[in-house]
User: Fold these one by one.
Assistant:
Number 1:
Amino acid sequence: MSDTVQQFLLLSIVGFPLCAFALMAVFAWQGRRRVERAVSTAVVLAFGLAMASAIALACMMLGGGQRMVTVSVGTWFGTGESEFHLLLVGDRLSLPFAVLTALLSGLIGVFSQRYLHKEPGYLRFYMLLALFGAGVELVALAGALELTFVGWELAGLTSALLIAFFHERRKPVEHGLRAFLTYRACDVGLLAAVVWLHHATGSSTVTGALAGTGVQGDSGWAGFQAPTSTWDAFLIGLPLLWASMGKAAQVPLGGWLPRAMEGPTPSSAVFYGAISVSLGPYLLLRTESVWSGAPAVRIAIVAVGALTAVHATLVGRAQTDIKSTLAYASMTQIGVILAEVGLGLRYLALAHLIAHAALRSAQILRSPSLIHDHHHLEQATGRPLPPTGRYLDRLVPAGTQAWLYRYALERGYFDAWLRDHVVGGLARLVRRAESLDDRWARLLSTGWTPLPHTGARTEPAGLSVAAVTAEGEGRGETTGRGEQES
Amino acid sequence: MIALVPLLVAALFLASSAVVSRIADPQAARRTAVYCASAATALSIVLPPLNRSVFFVTGKQQVAGLTVVALPEGAARLVIVVTCAAGLLVVAMSPLASHPPATMARILQVLAVSSGFVAVRHAAVAVVLWALSAWLVWAGLRRDGGGEGARRGDGLDRLFAVYHVPGVLLFGVGTALAGAGLRVTGTVLVVLAIMIRFAVIPLHSWYPRFVERAPLGVVVAFGTAPLGVLAQLDLSATALSASLAHDVALVGGLTAIVASVFGVLQNNARRALAFLMMSQTGLVACGLGNGSQAAVSGAVLTWEVSALAVSGFAMALAALEARRGTLSLVVPSGNFARTPRLAVAFLLCGLATAGFPLSLGFAGGHLLIHGSVAESPLVWLALIGAVGVNGMTVMRCFFTLFAGSRVHSGERDLVPLETYALTMAIGALLLGGVFPVVP
């Protein structure tokens, strides 16, 4: 009986938000009129029930001294060689994260009832929030890495669509696209890791507590079967790190994060301040058993995290608007968390992750009114508020300060590098190849008779939107309530 | 072997083509075509279970020396249903301006040929049907000068012929040689023919121009015809040697990744669609060339998804083009507040194409990639890359075509006929994603 209840609770954590989304999607497709309150109540209720389920399950496990609960819903599809298992796991890692996700998503649902009142995209926002919540819960509770990928993709898609929430303006749309492209480029890493893990170990489902799978110490949460060879661990760990870097906005791929603040403030709070960026470190925590056998991966994780932390803290200091500053502050902390994960401080990383998510989410929600408060405070005191962080001026030499300032203004030159050398180089190569192909097709079509160009490529070629749109938008693109401004 | 259900469907398509070609009013012609395609889809879905309960054809029966079945067995079991559903999408969503009754009739003929290919599985008949489908499209291009976007004398028909005449000849000669005992040579020629049909790199140059200029209904009907898939399935089952199969998988994987990269960098929506379709056919060719059961199942699923989702994606593009004019991907310039259903349908079909979770495409992509691991690291990495980049292409198209502008040209959302067809297709893709039937 108790097992059945536990399994139901575990399933319902994902099930409630997913059902809320499906219900709203059907109504939306039918084009029925929706009452705002009904929409938001359905989503808030779904997250409330999901949170209650997660808390109840955690209490039952604590009471019963259990460390892990798994639910296998069976095999989704597959042939003899490759099967997709629907396996969920509740343990010390997944349940706190699941509670946090449901709590923050529910609170954002409540907050947005007024914030987005009479907004034309009200239903769209709540649908995407529900789908995002379901996706993240799936990532948190997945007991099979394939299932993690499903949630991972859902979270990425909803995130991009919410950045482009104010779809009548070009910048949010471009930024949403940029975020999606970064996600997708990095998701390839997760897919590669899933496939190679399955190939190397014969399984991509959790096998038991980490202590039993070769990781030093007793972490107390479920882990995947570790590959026997260091080389396999390296080949799986590196793509996992790559996948994490995209979601967690790590250097050099983090340029999308400050731009993502173009979305509605509530979604920025829950996605980029709290949960979405936390998925990267979470993935590495969950898969630690897989990559911990490869010291090179551990070093790479620490290096990426540390580099991001230093970069983001420098760049964040040169930002002129609150949401961009908070975005870089998020990047800094996630970088530090990544370094903690790489150093094996897994409980510290988990605590840091949860604390950071809660705090940053509150800060971003507070950011629109912060500007008003700042002005009121200045009016009350009759003079500008004293600047903070001056001690750094004394620590850093003047020449270096100028260099660092340029570095910060240009956001570490990463965007320019990606635009000119990575995407731009590829685009130029493709353009040349396509030009040759087009000439060949024209020759076959009309012999030697010259024809006007087919319009295969007008200008500008390449990913005009997608390609890293660093120019112009870099400086001060968001304000306290940037999404409301044209 | 003769399969009765596909034969019935082919006859229905052929009869309705004759009726449609005689109707002068484009709207009435389209309505008639939709009724016919709906009936064909319903027949293809209902008849097999009905047959099992009524037993009008049980198992394989011999009639006048021919094997007669209700439906082909194995991986080809669902091909006729998918062909009919894709046909329904095509006829329901073909814009009236670019698809007059004559073009609509031609589309129905191409669908009849596709059904005929499933109905009669015989080498000689396959050659005839292969040639017939290419001739139908070529004749349409020659008569219409390549559709509404093309200029007369731009040689699209000639380009099509330059590739497809050798393709048909290679298929015919290859089949004849294989039948005469020269199996290796025959198989190589047939594989080359399939590669032309699939627009596999480097035999692809006809395809981007074809998609860019021909009426999209014709493009989709021709592209979803299961001729290449079934021919390659037959080859895989019988004649394809391991080394040749490996080469086919490699070329398919290469096509998938290269076409996907070309697709994401396009500034013209139709050309982006062309490369997306090429990438999908590359995935299918790669999976079918692969030895493992999972990869073959994944390839067939991917073909089914391509037939439904890419058709939906392409026809949504055609519908938007009919409302707005030539579609550019240079800057975001759409407004989906005016066309929410069209935008959602476009996105969902696109995401299913790119193997997004909770759609049938995910199951296909998953099996395809997992099944290809044993083949070679190059192949499965190419497949993963292609799936990832195709997703980027879809989202880029969605954002640039349906968002980014306050102004709109007053375009209307889906009409009931379009809603009906897209609801069917999307419902099938989503239901298939939750409860996938692995061939």
Note: The mean pLDDT of chain A is 84.
Number 2:
Amino acid sequence: MVALPSRHRSLFLLLGVVLLQVLLLAVQIKRDSQGRLIRAWTVSAVSPVERSGAWGIGKVRDAWRHYFALSDAARENEELRRENGQLKLEIMQLEGKSAEADRLAALLSFRQKQAKIPMVVARVIGSSADANSNIIYLDQGLRDGIRRNMGVITPEGVVGKVIESFRDTSQVLLLTDRDSGVGAMIAETRIQSPVGGTGEPLLNMKYVGNDDEVAVGSRVVTSGMDRIFPKDLPVGTITQVKPGGQYKQIRVRPSANLEKLEEVIVLLTTDPVVMKQDVAGANSLPAPAAGRPTSAATGKPTDKRP
Amino acid sequence: MNDTYDLRIGESHIEVHKFHSGTIVLSVLVATVLQSFLPVYISKFSVLDLPLLITIYFGLSRRNPSTGLLLGMVIGLLQDSLSKTPVGLFGIAKTIIGFLASSIGARLDTEHPAARFALTAAFYVLHQGIVVLIQKLLLAQPQPWFTMRLLLACLVNSVLGVFLYFLLDRLRKS
């Protein structure tokens, strides 16, 4: 057999390895399997490290906050003694309350108000290793009842949906991802249109006709048509409206701060649910009037306006 | 066994570097975990591509195309596994980058910071080009070839690369 020179050997190895991976890609596209096994192994290996890191960072941050809280306490206590005011001490204690406690209280309050809806609070422990995709990892998974296509929210608004669930971890596609989308409508006019990610911080409202009147500053809420999110959850606020070819170009700033998520709520159901109206701030919403019919499956408008 | 040895190509002598045991594995794991973990707390961190920098560095230092491409493949597949992309997208791109970095490292002296900056920038752009090409051709996902974010990310990664390589140089066997 003819021995290959080492230079050619590495070239053949390169071709072989690349070809194998192309085949791997092709198999995934054909079967829509997305390499679940290799992902499960990697996530299982990495998530304990991320979980420890999140715990460590939380502890360091708590210690840091408490240090300053105590420093403030000592300094302000002297002032308080001089002023002989018990009231200022109480104010200082309130000021020393950690932001994390506030967030958890908000989540708890939200959960209590929506007691009939099964949900779980999860901590964000990681994000995508790829800058082009907007995904996060949560510290809870199959064992906690989290399954694919469950909605993920915060009290401020929609976050995204679960795209993969492992034993103790789950993967969430954020609303800002290019492949993400949510059935939505404009709160005031009830015009329906899906809102999708663009890979940028702002979202895109896709199918609002040029004839429809849309004002900057209008609130966008979920329509419930995607059967993932309950109706009337805040999605965002319209920041820009431009006339387009067939549809308006509408940019929406997400209600939830998707760049700084630390705790989220996973709706533990894939069945349609109804949220209490006061949570979405929708008490003052007008009754559905100017909404355009949309397809539940695609979220696209069923009529074709020019 | 020698810790370093000379690779002779024509008249030039290029040193091949060796590392303490476990250095490469540990560097790959730390880079992958940091890439996945830190953007949760510092969102701007997502502009970095630490796995790519590690692929380039060990490719340029080890100067063996076969090990370079295999290391690139492993790092790329790890990155794919922690992303929502189909497994193989970054695998292919980093396999090619690992191969090219090792091949160039075997022909050029890549120890100077300016050379490292230029090579990292070139490899970053090439890596993104390969990723976009695969997305367009194999995955039917239209992606822009060039964005301002790409340019910025290229500069940031190249600057970080120079400092990171300097740190990783300390892990070489002397």
Note: Chain B has a mean pLDDT of 85.
